Every structure is written in structure tokens, then in C-alpha cells.
Amino acid sequence: MKNFRDVKILLYGTGAVGSLYGGKLAEAGASVSAVCRSDFNEVSSDGIFIKSVYGDYHFTPVSVVKAGSEYKDKPDFIIVATKCLPEINVAEMIKDSVHPGTSIVLLQNGIDIEPAVAGKFRENEIISGLAFVCAARTGYGRIDHADFGRVVLGTYPCGISEKVKLLVEMFRSVRIPAEAESDIIAARWRKLLWNAPFNPLSVLCGGADTSQMMNDEHVRGLAESIMREVVLVSAAHGHPVAEEFILKNIEDTLKMKPYKTSMLLDYESHRPFEIEAILGNAIRIAELNRISVPHIKTIYALLGILNSSNVEK
């Protein structure tokens, strides 16, 4: 295995995605530290225990801090793996730990999430990342990784830099399926093709897992209608998703182990939904391009009401 010990990584977000992949990058040999808030005590004292289809492992960050300003090194990569929510200002959150030469990796859900960070840090490389994974945090410092795990990375807004190649190499060295993508915006639209229907519908169907949704022909039909709207908007945005991906998403979801989506887990735990990143931004792009998306607008409106009433004050 190649030696990656000189690579310094600062991880923001020790939920399922951050912990799973941060732990794997540490296994590859990188120096991975973590910024923690609610789980600071548990992670700083015991690290993170990950039950994974790749084999269980224990991730102990090199250092655990409550804020980026407490991290005294200069990271090669900042990996942002927090929820993508309007109340989380990523640029403000990471500003004290960004240095010349630091690449900022947004390993988050949603579409059109990069501009605010790219606009703030014009001299830093922005790497956009997608995690195709079924994983959940079951408690502070406890992660359950049930299925999948592929990572797709690309320079924003386009291209494949040497540091993207380095991250891909690091992931592959520890058996994580990883790909470099030159049109990462198109890759985000392809992922939204799944997230836009199945995350919201899992909540609106009263807590349905993927198997329950796929076994109902009406829900499956609604999911397909939402996906067709995503295809239309992606084309208008200049990053078209081929219609064949609709069938592929259906087939993949049919083969998937019964899985509760991240939005459903947020609902059950009374946490806010990633509505804007997954649906709101797509609606705004549709409106700018005069594309009709009635199904997406309907689930967006319904989720908004649920989100307001469900989140713990």
C-alpha cells in the first residue's frame, strides 16, 4: 500500500458519511482530524465504532476539536460531511481552517450547493463529492453501514485535478469503490435522480423503507414521475441526465437491502430535512428555465409543513 501519511485531512461532520469515509482515509494512512459538536465528548474519548459491510473498524481521529480555529495544522483537505441545511453556513464554519493550498471537499447531498463556498474561497480548489451509500449514525460515535459505498469526486465546476486523483487513490487503497468525474455537476444530477423521489416519499409514505416503496405500484409510479422532472431540469441546466438512468435507479432500488433513507431517519429523530438542497434548489433552477415540475413542487410543499412541525425546538 502506498504511504499517504503526509496527507492532512480535517473532517467537519462525524455523522454516518463523515465517519465512514474519514475512518477509511485514516486506514489509508492519512492524518485525519475531526471537528465535532454534539458528539465531541464521545468521539474525543472513545473514537468512532463503525459496523460495516466492508468489515467493522474503529476510527480514532488524530485530534478532535470543537471548532476549526482550534486545529493548529494546515490541512491539505477539508472534508465537509455535514447535513446540507440553510442554517449551516459552510463557508463561515470552515473559514478559520482554510489555508493557501487547502482543497475543500463538499461530500454532501443536493444540487447547486457549491457556489457559496466557491465564491468565498476563490483561491482554493473546490472538490465536489458524492457518496452512494446506505449508512446511518445509530448513536454518538456509532455508525451502521449496511450497503453500497461508492464515492464519486470531481473538481468544481469541472475537471479532474491531481488532488482529486489523490483522494480517489487513497479510497481505492482501502477497497472503497471510488471514481473521478470530470463533470461533477452532471454526476450530482444523476444522484438527485434517486434522492429527489425516494428521500421525500419515504417520509410522506409514513415511514416506508425502500422495499416498501418499491412494492407499491403507485409509489413506484410517482417516483418515476419525479425522476422524469429531474431529467428535464438537468437538461435545461446544461448537464443532461439520460432517461435510461430512471430504469437503472428503479432496478438498483429493487435489489437494495430494505433501507430507511437519510431523510426518514432525520424525521424519526426530529431533525431538519435537507429540503432545500434536494428539492428547493432544483425548483429554483426549473423556474429560471421555465420548466414545469408539479410533482417536485408538491412534495416540497408537503415536506415543508412536516419539517416545521416535526423538528424539535
Structure overview:
Helix 6 (184-204) crosses helix 12. Helix content is 44%, strand content 19%. It contains 12 helices and 10 strands. The model has no long low-confidence stretch (mean pLDDT 96). 43% of the residues are buried.
Q: Summarize the amount of helix as a percent range.
A: 40-55%
The radius of gyration is 19 Å
Total strand count, please?
Answer: 10
Would you tell me the structural class of the helices and strands? alpha/beta
Strand content: 15-25%
Report on the biggest sheet. Answer: 10 strands, mixed
Number of helices: 12
Question: Which residue ranges are poorly predicted, with pLDDT under 50 across at least 5 consecutive positions?
Answer: none
What's the oligomerization state?
single chain
- What is the approximate shape? globular
Average pLDDT reading:
96
The N- to C-terminal Cα distance equals 48 Å
Task: Please sum up the structure shown.
Helices cover 44% and strands 19% of the residues.
Question: Mind sketching the topology for me?
Answer:
Blueprint: E1 8-12, H1 16-27, E2 31-35, H2 40-46, E3 48-52, E4 57-59, E5 64-65, E6 77-80, H3 90-94, E7 103-107, H4 115-120, E8 126-139, E9 142-155, H5 162-173, E10 178-180, H6 184-204, H7 210-214, H8 217-236, H9 244-255, H10 262-268, H11 275-288, H12 294-310
Parallel strand pairs: 1-2, 1-6, 2-5, 3-9, 6-7, 7-8, 9-10
Antiparallel strand pairs: 3-4, 8-9
Helix pairs in contact: 6-8, 6-10, 6-12, 11-12
